[in-house]
Amino acid sequence: VHSAGVIRLVLLFVTLLVPRGHGQCPPMGQSHDLQLHSSLAGERLPRHKCGNQKSCPQNYFAFKIISGAANVVGPSICFEDLVLMSSVKNNIGRGLNIALVNGTTGQLLKTNTFDMFSGGKLCSLGVPARAHTSCFSVVYLMIKMNDKVRAYFTELGSSHVGELGFRDNWVFLGAKGLMNKSPFEKHIKNDQETNKYEGWPELLEMEGCAPRKMD
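Structure tokens predicted for FAM3 metabolism regulating signaling molecule D (215 residues):
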């Protein structure tokens, strides 16, 4: 889905990691690398950025966000074929894992981790005041996501943040200053009847094309 206006200035990716086992998560490239081959000719199919199923058109950024699963698979964020955050890069931690990217140039501005489980403050996120856009992916919602944090994500275009519960899986790419809700969002409830893992819902993966901010 291409949605003009989703990305205007700054991309901000966030993952929320489970409180245990995060140092043992396999890297994205090992668990989710798409090495597809033609079953007929035995030839490798064209590879797209971030291992996505399709290439992005001109002036769009390719992204893939993986939520992780329980304490087995760690979250990862890929942007324009570069893994910004993952366990193999040793830059993820318990709580919110954030990567800030310039929406015009695609340049990585910063990465950070906020320990929401011990009451870490999201207000120190560091998004530029004039930034019009942010992109988020959140994994494993925990009780520490209070109303103020939920309101922050709602402002960025989330439709489901108000429904999130303990250990839910949620991936979200939003934008500061959006007129409408973001088209990039997935949510799965923690439900003992449907959970794929014991006490945890299945992994969520979201890929797509984010429009470049054009002057």
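Residues 8 and 41 are 42 Å apart (CA to CA).
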